[in-house]
Each structure stands twice: as C-alpha cells, then as structure tokens.
Amino acid sequence: MLLDVSESQLVLVDYQERLMPAIAEHHVVLANARRLARAAHRLGVPVWGTEQNPAKLGQNDPELRALCQRTVTKMAFSAVEEGLLDCLRPPARPTPGNARSLPRHLQKAQAPTVERSMAVLAGCEAHVCLLQTALELVEQEVDVWVVTDACGSRTERNRDAAFDRLAGAGCELVTTEMVLFEWMRSAEHPAFRDVQALIK
Amino acid sequence: MLLDVSESQLVLVDYQERLMPAIAEHHVVLANARRLARAAHRLGVPVWGTEQNPAKLGQNDPELRALCQRTVTKMAFSAVEEGLLDCLRPPARPTPGNARSLPRHLQKAQAPTVERSMAVLAGCEAHVCLLQTALELVEQEVDVWVVTDACGSRTERNRDAAFDRLAGAGCELVTTEMVLFEWMRSAEHPAFRDVQALIK
Amino acid sequence: MLLDVSESQLVLVDYQERLMPAIAEHHVVLANARRLARAAHRLGVPVWGTEQNPAKLGQNDPELRALCQRTVTKMAFSAVEEGLLDCLRPPARPTPGNARSLPRHLQKAQAPTVERSMAVLAGCEAHVCLLQTALELVEQEVDVWVVTDACGSRTERNRDAAFDRLAGAGCELVTTEMVLFEWMRSAEHPAFRDVQALIK
Amino acid sequence: MLLDVSESQLVLVDYQERLMPAIAEHHVVLANARRLARAAHRLGVPVWGTEQNPAKLGQNDPELRALCQRTVTKMAFSAVEEGLLDCLRPPARPTPGNARSLPRHLQKAQAPTVERSMAVLAGCEAHVCLLQTALELVEQEVDVWVVTDACGSRTERNRDAAFDRLAGAGCELVTTEMVLFEWMRSAEHPAFRDVQALIK
Question: What's the complex ipTM?
Fold first, then answer.
C-alpha cells in the first residue's frame, strides 16, 4: 500500500540536543527528519513531537520543534500513554455549555472525527523509544510507517535490529524520499518543486 | 512458483537519458534491462515501456525503446492509471460495425482474452516510480515480479529499501538470469544458445 | 509485542570456558550475557543456565554461573528434554504429607502456577545448541525471544543463518539493550540508574 | 522444526567439473557438499545426485558421485521431472509374479512405503538449477531444506537472491553444520566423533 497524504500524520521521536551527538550518522538522521517535517508542513500533514526526560536530555532540535503542533514530554520510553495517542486520535469532545440539558433530539450533532489513520514515525533511539512507541501504536491498531533513514541509535547493530523487529510486527519500513513522493503522487502536484528542492 | 514464458509480460520503467547517469550502478542496470528486453523479444514476450515527464527527463534508452510495443508517457509516478494497466489487460473491444443491431444469438462471440498474468517489472528509480507502479499493480491483483539487478535508485539505501518493501507487499524478487532461465526451462529450448549468449 | 518483566525468564546456553574462545566476537557476546544476567538479577527475573558436556567443555563463565538459579547439564544439543523445560514450567507438585489420604473436598487447593511465559534466550553456538533449544521450546509453545548480540558461533555465517531461521520459526529477535529497556519501560523505574549503568 | 535423520534424503545438484571453477567460493561450496555426503553416508541417509547436460558440463565431482545411490542426468534445469521425484518418492511396485491372479483377499499386503519426507538440497547454480529444482519440489509438497553454504552461483548477488526467494517459497535455509548436528541431536550419538571430525 502507498502512503496517502490525506490520511497521514508525522511523529518525530526524541531528536534531543543531548542525545543526538551520540547517534550513528546523526547528521543524516537529523537532515531527513527536517525534510519530513518541512514537507509535512508544506502539504498540510499534522506533525507531533516527543521528548524523553527533557530536563536531562534537552529539547528537540529547534527547527523540528517549531514545526510540531505539539511536543509531548515523557518519562516512559513509549510516548503512547504519555499523550501521543490523544494527539493522533483526539478523544470526542463533550458537548459544550448547556447543551447537555437540551433534549437529545435538539442537541447539535458532533462533527464526525476525520481520523488520519497512517502514523509516519521517525526518531531516536530506534531500538528504545522509537521501537516501544511504534509497537504500542501497533497494539492500538494504528497503521505505523517507520522512516528508516530518519531513525538512529548509538550503534548500527541496535538500529538495524529495531528495523527487523518493526517489520516483523507489521510496520511498513519506508525512506524519506518514499514518503515525499508518495505524499505527492505526481510531478504535477502543486508543491512538487518545493518538495523536490528539499532532497537536492 | 517459477515464471512461465507464456504468461509473462515485461514492463520497463523510466530508463531515461537524463535520469540514468545519476543512478547507482547504472551501467549494470541498463545492461540487464537490455538483456531482458532482447530475451523477451526473442521469446515472444510482450514488452511495454514507461517514461516520466519525457519533456524534462528525455526518452528511454533507444535500444529499449525500439523493443517496446508501446511506451506510456506519464506525469504521475505510477504508470498504472496512465495507460499501463490497459496495456497489460487490454479492455474488451466493443463489437465493431453494425453487429450491435444484430439479435444476440447472431453476434459473433468475442475471442476470449488470453491474459498474461505475470508482470515482470524493472526500472528507475526503484523507490519511486518503480515502487509506486508495482504496488498499484499489486492492488489491481496483478502478479508482480521485480527484477532487482535491472532496477536502480540514486542511492543504494533507497533502492534496497524498495526491494524489502516490494517483497513485503507480495512481489516476487528475481534477477535477470533467473528470468531468462525460467522463461526457457531447459537447455533444449530452441532459443537456448541465443539467450545464453546474452549473459556472457 | 514488548517484553514484560513480570512474564520473563532468562536462559543462558553454554557459555563454557573451553568453547567461548573459539566464538566470533566472544568478548562482546560474553559481556552482553553478563549484562542480561545482572539486569535479570536486579529486576527479579529468574535465570537458568545450561552446559553442554561439561566434563569436556568446562563450566559456564563463573559470573554467569553464580547468577543462575540452576544450571542444567546435558549431552543432547537441545536442553529442553534435559531439564530446562522443567525449570521454565515447573510441574505441579504433589500435595505433601498425609493430605493424600484426605477426602478430595477437604484437600487444600493448589496455588495456581504463575507461569512466566516469555523465555529470553542467548548462548552458543547460535546454530547448534541455542538453535536446537529454541526450536524445541517453540514446539512446546513457549514464546521465545533470542538476544542476538549475546549469541555467538565460531563463524558469523553460521550465526546469522541461525538468526534467520529462528525468526522464520516465530522467535522474536531482540538485542541486549532492547531487553533491558523493555524490562523497565520508564526512566522512572526504581532500577533505572543501576540498569543503565550496565550498558555504559 | 529440526531435521530428523530418519526422515531425510540428500540431493546434490550439478557439482560438475566444467561448471564448478566458475562458481564463487567454489572450494568452500564443494567442501561442504562433501561433508554432507560423507555424513549422510555414515548416518544411513540416502544420497541422490543430478548432472546438467553432462556431455557438455562434465560429470559431478568424483567423490560426490561415488556417494550417490543414483545420479540423474537432465537437460531441463529442474531435475524434478527428469527422474528426481521418482528417487525421492519411489512409485509403488506392482505385486510381482502370479500374485495378480490371486483373489484379492489372498494377495500379500504391500509393505507400507516408508517415505522420507525431508529433502535436503544443495548445489549449483543456486539461482538456476538448484532454485528450479527446489521450487518444483515445493509444488509437489515435498519439504525442502536448502543448505546455503553448500550452494553457489557464479555471482554472489544471484546466489543470495536465490536464497531469499527460496525462503519466501517456504524452503528452510540451513547450513552444513546445522544439518550434521540435527541429524545427530546429541554428543552421545554413536557417530558423533566421526561426524564431528568432518567439520574440523
């Protein structure tokens, strides 16, 4: 299956200032995360961030942080129960004001939630916070797409083991360029020049 | 399952003059595409080509182009809706002439479509146009065989990620030599010497 | 699925003094086995050991041996029928003393066995004793998790072939760090500093 | 699942004198094939050989040839229809002599065929004759085990592509040492010293 831009959300996990320098190929990893975030922003795809224990590990890369609608802070390695699932699947809002006292047939119908079911994930460390977040999303029956060339661990062996395990659990492994070209689908997409410029 | 020459069609995706020089191992990739096209021609396998935005990227390699029954031009990255599916599965032709006015039992029965169900694909970039074309064919329930050593991307990482994803989606990954020897099945095939000469 | 510390048991296969020096990357393999055993000990996870023909191959690494609740000696390459399965799934104990003579309705109900269903395995050689033990546990419907960076064979080719085969048989392939961080789940776990110190 | 020596047969595909020198790592490939054949011979496992167009490519390695119960010659790349399937699954013999004329209830019951259902395959080229033979056996519902380190192609890329495809088709990929230790299962096997000596 191909990614559908209207069904996508982007989740950027723990690109933190005191974690990134230890990550293998961290310049490549961060550059790809920025490409994803800029393209998502250009194409109207919601972007969420997470930060592990920011008091100790610092904040996310400033450029990424500025492109996130919300950044979830967490102490658990998985972000799912720390607020991320509520971002991806906003709970139905209670009817506001006095509406509750109205007879049922007079209450205004809630707008149907337009859920975006494809969660495109990337982050660090691939075998800890990214992995635990992805696998818990899978258990919540979210479709998870992991962007491998925007993920990193301190060692390549741990990183690659994470990818194998994620694939085995049903996550789709993609690359940054795959995501960008599937979000557009055609060289006639109005954002084609802007997005193509990101990968030069 | 082995390839069956009588069930096969060959699809060559975007071997274009202004794209190929940027492809990793482009000499090998193009040489294998030529082997596939020549063998298909020798063995009576239909060959189709695609070109992405030829006004900008140029035409396919001339030798390949000459061996294609038809070359589909496209702006979408996937060729499926741009004419390729009609090549692979020709729509039933309407009964010509005045036959329509004849009573049903006098109309000539249409020849049953002898559909070739195995689409053997190769091309560039492996993770964009080849991938999107292949995955959309899978969604159309076409059996897709991807010839890995005739596919290329600018980077090997993107190319190999495409192969993993194609395999996960149910495509069969093969090599040029596998295709040639499965199309023949035996050293007694009348074309054995000609086809074997292609791989020396 | 993520590992659950309350469901886990650790099995350390054949880290024997006259076998280890021949194992590829044996320093790394043994260091990771020690990390696993120390973390398991700190987190209350039961640890079991096995030794192949110890009269010939010697005992397990002394530090590992000291952390095992029991070390099973064996001549078969698989430890499953040699006592390991009884460690992982203790058979129901007969009611002690005179209780047997009591009428059935007066006998004290046995405490339900709290079985730990996740067997975390590592050891040597990956393609012989570790593989045969793991595959026989799978046949017993035990959930098997193999810690790849704590496993070794004399050659990397045999080791990696074992991992592929284990994955194909339904074992989950993990790394030492994955295990440790999944056993804790959060930086607020009371053992976080102790366990994190093991991987520095 | 582990290999069972009493269920196994060994098939050695095309280790021919004018083919082998072109095979990548041919010394290793042939050495492992000889280990398999000697161990099979020692353990009572039937051994079959195949030769592709021997008039052109020569005979199999003499040591292997001497250990085969029968060597099937062939022109098709797959040996299955060329006599191999009859070796692996001998057709029921007609009742001999005059027994046919006896009334049914007086006929001697045929001995039930003790079929060995596990076909352990190795050979060259991995992506042509070995692959086609293996995939046709799979279609015949034979359980196929491919010994990767006793298989070869001229190029490693073709060889490894064959292994991926064989695994995807349901063949179990094993190594020479895996086979030997699974055929014995224990260091107390009476042939343990002899077989272990083969891999030193």
Answer: 0.90
